[in-house]
Design goal:
mainly alpha; Four Helix Bundle (Hemerythrin (Met), subunit A); 67% helix
Length: 261
């Protein structure tokens, strides 16, 4: 099997996931509507935030059956869903006015999502419900947050277009795996990977804060990008040395490391 295989899960897992999603979507929409009024955002903001959350949850629910060997969604995945809601609210700010209060809100929400990273994994282990789905759900949430923050840093004029590399590098790495199969080899978690992940969240969140202006914002973004390039370079060298056979794959068809950055 290669790539994703979307399939609606069987009950009661389906019921568990759909009910949680059904509770989460109105909450995201309600927060987005309130934020629109408080921050003077466009009428499209609630639709962007709720639509992004809905798209992510539909995709996640479709991947549950094959990659989540339990009969309920689980508290770890609920925690990840809460982080995904924050990410959707941040992502919805793309294209909104780059006034200071909007930038501060985006940075604060991103830092909160980063602070909650790790809670989902701890809950999954604590309840003995760790799964390939949960690890992937957590990782993709992290990756998309970094992409959203890098776009906002460029949109707010805090750094040049090169800052988008922070958000696109992971997707480029995955695409490279289709050209060079050895890039799809397994990578075990490392302290370096976890540290660089934190650097990405904090660095990009600080970059978009109103208090940090050019040239300091560009410098923070550049240091963040340099740390990410270093981390990916080390991983590429590790994979090249391992030279794992193409047949060594994860449950998703591609061997992804636990930490996205």
């Amino acid at each position: 099997m290669t790539g994703f295989h979307w399939k609606l899960p069987d009950a009661p897992l389906r019921t568990s996931a759909v009910w949680i999603f059904a509770l989460g979507l109105p909450a995201v929409l309600g927060i987005a509507v309130s934020a629109r009024a408080a921050l003077d955002l466009t009428a499209l903001y609630p639709l962007k935030a709720a639509g992004g959350f809905a798209a992510g949850m539909v995709l996640a629910i479709g991947l549950l059956d094959r990659h989540h060997p339990f009969d309920r969604f689980g508290p770890g995945n609920v925690a990840t869903m809460l982080r995904a809601a924050l990410v959707a609210l941040v992502t919805g700010l793309i294209g909104e006015p780059g006034i200071p209060i909007v930038a501060a809100t985006a940075g604060g929400a991103a830092l909160l999502a980063a602070a909650l990273d790790g809670v989902d994994g701890w809950l999954a282990r604590r309840t003995k419900m760790a799964s390939a789905f949960g690890a992937r759900f957590d990782m993709e949430t992290d990756v998309f947050l970094v992409l959203a923050l890098s776009i906002l840093a460029w949109q707010f004029g805090k750094a040049g277009v090169w800052v988008l590399l922070c958000g696109l590098m992971r997707y480029g790495f995955v695409a490279g795996g289709w050209l060079w199969p050895w890039l799809r080899g397994p990578l075990s978690p490392t302290v370096r990977g976890k540290s660089i992940c934190v650097v990405q969240f904090v660095g990009l969140s600080l970059t978009i804060l109103p208090a940090i202006q050019r040239p300091f914002s560009a410098l923070v973004a550049a240091v963040t990008l340099a740390a990410l390039v270093y981390s990916f370079w080390v991983d590429v060298l590790r994979l090249r040395r391992q030279a794992e056979p193409v047949s060594t794959r994860s449950a998703f068809g591609i061997a992804y490391k636990r930490e996205p950055l």
